[in-house]
Amino acid sequence: MKYEIRLVVTYLVLLILIVSLAGGCLEQSSGLSRENGTEAIEEVDSNRSPSTGRSPSTGHLKTEAVNLSGFETGNPALVGNYRLEALDIELKAPQYDLPLQESDISNYGEFSQKFLTDDTALEKLKENGFVVISNPYNPKEEDITAMYNRLGNEGQLIFITSDTLLHLYHVQFDDSMSRIEQEELYVLLWELDKALLNASVSDYNSASGEEKEAAKRNTAYFSVALSLLQPEEEQIKEIEDPYDPEAGTYFDLAAKEKYQFEIPAFVKDEVNAELALIEAHEGFALSPIFHYKEDYSQYVPRGHYTHSEILKNYFKAFMWHGRMSMLLKGKLIEAEDPEKEARIQTIQANLTTSRLEDDPDLLMKWDRIYAVTAFYVGISDDLGPYEYMEAMETVFGNGSRNFNTTTMEELKIELAGYRSPEIYGGTGSGTHEPVIIAEQADELLEDTKGFRFMGQRFIPDSYIFFRLSGPYTKEYTGNQEQMPFTYIDSEYGNNRGFPRGLDAMALLGSERAVYWLDELNDSSYKNYSLRYGELDSEFSNFSAADWNRNLYWSWLYSLQPLLKGYGAGYPTFMQTDAWQDKELSTSLASWTELRHDTILYAKQLYVIETSLPIFGDKTVGYVEPVPEFYNRLLALTRMTANGLEELNALDEDTGRNFENLENNLEKLIEISKKELENEELTEEDKYYIFKFGEIIKMSVDVDEEARKTTLVADVHTEPNNKLVLEEGTGYVDMAIVAYKVPDGRVFLAAGPVMSHYEFKQPMEERLTDEKWREMLEANPPERPEWVSTYRA
């Protein structure tokens, strides 16, 4: 199209990768479309399973390289940095018989006196070849690296876990995101909102009729955003010492003057009413500006956004921009003339879009914010400025833009042909009739179509939750305090009220998740099998390019090797159902960290010494042999670092952190490959395992708060019952595994693993990390059912 050609030329002239990211939003569906023309070499998979998309183990692990270039495929930058190296490993790790006997284990005596004093733990170890226990060094440990040093100092054998590497990636992902948000995106958003507020006031002073009312609403809209960004007096504090723990936590004194504005008098009442609802965050209420119901409980800063006053304000303002929609239709609007209100909201969207289009500096700032966040989390699930620019060009051409009743109907007809959202975000909840079938859900999504200034992003797990649970129920009439994850609607049959993390893991390829959904009677609900089958068909056809469109999707792609079944040739303990349950828990904990990091929208190189100690035939420990996982995490780490560097968003410290993680992952691939091929480890390999705790401690330059494993994220809202589904990660546990070395001896080694929780919470009490830690300390929820197969 003419408009798209002009847009691409503009981006090439600017030579800014960031802008080309934003340009991609014109053609990309926010849903699960594969129409991006991307060609990729995928893993060899001749025996694909329809439920998991995985091949049965054949004693050989062979994958091919994946080399994605965004500019070559027409999908700019989002996948341009993903490079997955080929693997070719003959699986012949030495085996032992289960159940294990104490006499089979070379270091049983010393190890058991320290860690296996509980009879249940010992029985599970014998039965499965491994067990997970509460951390004997510190049951409330929040640093996943601490256990390695304790084990090493005591001369115990070390088990290097996938949990550790996943948590380290989370730490660096979260730290890099929070840095750019605090140091750049906050300022850009302030400047953008301030300029658009001034433009809206100018439009209001020069317009008449409905256009004047739309300009007034925009004035109120941007005034709310600026009010949320603006520092309060108690948020300002001068910190002179850069090493002070509070450095970077508060606004500095200069912010008081820099981030100031006055709410225009003609919108002050509406703005203050909106701000009062945001501050109260008590759930659904009618928006004074938009006249549909909004969930104000969403505006409680959560995730890493509680770590500084700047991030708290950024969170609330960005949430406002991400959730509040200028609707095309009036069905969800509660007013005397809903269609007139929808027309005014559509004029609002077009006025804002026109201002961005006419001012290259403003558009570049919008592009910068959108593209950085899109690289992390993905593209918006809603229509935005570029779709509205294209629609206006179709209706008005190069002529003047008169937003009268006739032209607005033409615009609305044009925009109606654009994609609808894929995920229902709660807009106007309680206004519509109860949704019973999928077709009605699609109709509801159509009713929420409209313009969002910086729309919340399409993520696959929310899509899964919507399609499997959605708002496909009427109401729950029982005791809400006792309500399980699912409930029965007496008129319409057995309907699912709450999703589970198991749903997402099942569609990522976990057969154990499928098993537990059946075993826990969480897959026998009305239409569940039909919807699951539709989703499975979509997900099983994804290419490597689909899975690596942004960091969020690529993180999920990295988890998939952990979720498969481990067959012949893998260590004995990994071939058990219990180990699959443990990996399921690890993956859920990592997914929780992803949701935590993105809740608003997820060095020093250690050089091995020249003179190494000689270990001889002494074993020092074991690396969890999951090279396919390490390989994907390595590709994701490189994609993250390279993409941020191209976006000019990678500072020196963050760059070193990612480089260190790359070096560690390369070494773990090398060692785990040797373990699976039953090769002796070199002295260097043994030294690396022996010193692993020190190496990773030095490799991650972040503060103690950022290292903590105790995180929480709300992932789903059930408005009928005013409850949210919370996913939490808890204290560090200890895994003990029995492994066999090439000379035939069996040893026990220990290492840290993450813990995972899933529970409901009142929506007006969405948890922050701080509140979650208080709950863990005083009254933790029950752990998921399946952990009993491996945890003592």
UniProtKB/TrEMBL annotation:
Kindly state which keywords UniProt assigns to this record, in alphabetical order.
Answer: Coiled coil
Return the annotated region ranges for Disordered. Answer: 41-61
Q: Which domain of life is it from?
A: Archaea
Pfam families reported for this sequence:
DUF3160
Q: Coiled coil as a keyword?
A: yes
Keyword check for Coiled coil: yes
Give coiled-coil spans as residue ranges.
644-684
Positions with biased composition (Polar residues): 47-60
* Designated name of the protein: dTDP-D-glucose 4,6-dehydratase
Q: Which organism is it from?
A: Methanosarcina horonobensis HB-1 = JCM 15518
High-level lineage: Archaea, Methanobacteriati, Methanobacteriota, Stenosarchaea group, Methanomicrobia
